[in-house]
Amino acid sequence: MIDLKHTQGFLHHLILEAGDITLNFRKKRDTLQVNNKAFRDYVTEADVATEKFIIEHILREFPDHSIYGEEAGKIAGNEYRWIIDPIDGTTSFMRGLPFYSISIALECSGTTILGAVLQPACNDLYEAVENGPATLNGSPIHVSQQDNLAECVLATGFACQPLEKGSPNLPFFNRVMPEIQDVRRLGSAAADCCYVASGCIEGHWELNLKLYDIAAGAFIVERAGGVVTDFSGGTSGLPGQFICTNGKIHESLREILNRPE
Question: Is the pTM of this model over 0.90?
Fold first, then answer.
């Protein structure tokens, strides 16, 4: 068993240090080394260096723990697993936009017990712990209480897909947009989750996400009083079909997303 309070403090300091690494790379973005992993899917030297730093410090503190990182993949260990996205929103990061995040979650036997999402350029740190509140910079946060879908602002994203396949999210976007106040598309699912958790927006939906994109953010939403499911209302389709909301509009949004074309 780990000491959860100690581990929370460890994660708090670790993610802030990792954020400083990204900010230093951000200053020299014009000379940043960039590689294409796939269509519209980039990895920079900042992604690699930040994740390497995070993993090294985790394994130094918890040498028996498992790791699942976006760039490093899976490292086998015990029932505790750290899920890491070193820069969620790499395109924004590359272009000097502030909408990127570092996302780190800790699971025990498949259940998330700790999560943190840092937006370094905004100096905003979202945290949550098992049986505790979700916080933003140390202050408790809660989801919006808006229950009228027409007054809601939602966020979404579009997966990196070859052009000939089109965007699988466009039909859903076209169904949702007429029913709500507006949509935001910021490029970081982790950040979008945290905006739901803090009541800035009422929901987020997306397709073809990976676990590292939403592990910490989804946990923070739940600890802030929100709801996380797949399009069916369960969890078997997560994270490929992902919805998080304030709970008040969850079923209404699901109904729209599930309408036949």
Answer: yes
